[in-house]
Amino acid sequence: MKMYSTGDAGAFDALYERHRGALYRFMLRQTGVAAVAEELYQDVWTGIIRRRETYTPTARFTTYLFQVARNRLTDHYRKDKGRSLQMQGYDDDEHAAASSQQPDQQAEVQDQYQRLLCYLKTLPEEQREAFLLRHDGGLSIDEIAGATGVNHETAKSRLRYAMNKLRTAMDRDEQ
Amino acid sequence: MTADKDRLSNDDISTLYQRGSDELPPAHLDDAIRAAARREVCSTAKSLSPFAGNWKVPLSLAALLVISSSLVILIETQQQGITTGEDIVLDNNRSINEDRVVPGKPRAADPLPAETRQDSQEREGASRQQFTEGARPAVPASKPVAKMKRREDVDRGSLDLTGIRGLTAADTAAEPGADRADTLVRSRPTTDSSVSIDKDTVMNFASTPPAIPASASQDAVADVEQYAFDTPEQWLKAIDELLKQKNTRQAKNSLEAFTRKYPQYQLTARYRRILASQ
């Protein structure tokens, strides 16, 4: 990022390539709608490009990136609170249709993944955020705490709750 | 037990999530973001360039640079030209003298404008004052025999005094800061018993017109006087001073040196009488 801020356009390409998937998935999971996720995703990168000269590397760039993304999501929720709730809930029909279309083992994994995503949507926002920051962003507990503005124990507890709920839901499905 | 085994662990959940997470942003979004990044860098590069799109400012700066350089070079040349200017003044004096030597001959064209000559003379006067008022240059003792070739040598302090009678290299290699006059006064007596330069003589030598010691040999007087005056007129003025002081012998010696230096100079009857006197 420092190289990009000094005018190295190639440095941005490398940076973008490294983080594009993780950030996009984070936005997609958080919003639940691809179009909104794309819009917010673009906003996040545009903001980072514009603020590159004021960027001071106090932490990992990943932490900074997801902090910006989280702030953008917060703004989005604030403006459009009703719509953000549409991600919640689990569409059994959709899940069933996806399951029936994949007969082999790979299809079973895909089915499990789709169910996981559906349960992820049902998590409280803070817990889902902690889970996504951990698994998409690769942030540590401390980094999650820093990005979400809570202390270490709170972040750790949110992540633990999220994992427990997902595991319980998946186990229940298996039975 | 079987139920416990079949239960998913946290790692299973993580693995399942990571394995399935392969969604990527659409290509058009990637292109748009990358293009925006490049645009921003280009615009920054343009804004960082202080003279972007404005050729007048760099042109003005370049002109300023050229003028400054020229001024510096000119000043340096003028400073070096102090010496050159003295030479020109001396040459002018010489040509003036030549004009006087041959009456009726039209005076040669002055190679320098009057202002330049005046400036050179002022600088010469200033450098002479510097020498007499406190410049105490170290005197090198490199050459075994030397004469006072030019006034500039005196002014610069690069004069080798070992050629002056009664002085040796050890005397002239005085410690830095030693008074030039003191150095001369401390000269050891040599086999030439006729030479005896006292401090007053040296101090007078430094100022104009000098008082020439009566006991100095004719050659020594000639050596001193020959280079102590810039013009014959100054020299004659000094001789007049000697005559006023009733120092006829010394005046005569000086006049003889003068005639050796300027053999074709038309002396007045008064000076010719002195020269003819016993």
Task: Give structural notes.
The complex is a heterodimer of chains A (175) and B (278). Chain A is mainly α and 175 residues long. Helix content of chain A is 78%, strand content 0%. Chain A contains ten helices and no strands. Chain A has helices at 2-5, 9-31, 34-50, 61-79, 81-84, 92-100, 105-122, 125-135, 141-148, 152-174. The longest helix of chain A has 23 residues, at 9-31. With 278 residues, chain B is mainly α. Chain B contains 13 helices and no strands. Chain B has helices spanning 2-6, 10-20, 27-48, 56-101, 114-133, 151-156, 169-172, 180-185, 199-206, 218-228, 232-244, 248-261, 269-276. In chain B, α10 packs across α12 and α11 runs antiparallel to α12 (248-261). The N and C termini of chain B lie far apart (149 Å). The relative contact order of chain B is 0.06.
| Quantity of strands of chain B, as a count | 0
Largest sheet of chain B: none
Report the major sheet of chain A.
Answer: none
Radius of gyration over C-alpha positions of chain B, nearest whole angstrom: 41 Å
Distance between the termini of chain B: 149 Å
Q: What is the helical fraction of chain A, as a range of percent? A: over 70%
Q: How many separate helices of chain A? A: 10
Class from helix and strand fractions of chain B: mainly alpha
Which regions of chain A are unreliable across 5 or more consecutive residues at pLDDT < 50? 84-102
Oligomer: heterodimer
Structural class by SSE content of chain A:
mainly alpha
Bin the helical content of chain B: 55-70%
Mean pLDDT reading of chain B: 64
Q: How many distinct beta strands of chain A? A: 0
Q: What shape does the CA trace of chain A take?
A: globular
Strand content of chain A: under 5%
Average predicted confidence as pLDDT of chain A = 79
Unreliable stretches of chain B (pLDDT < 50, length at least 5) are 105-111, 130-196, 205-212
Q: What is the H/E order of chain B?
A: HHHHHHHHHHHHH
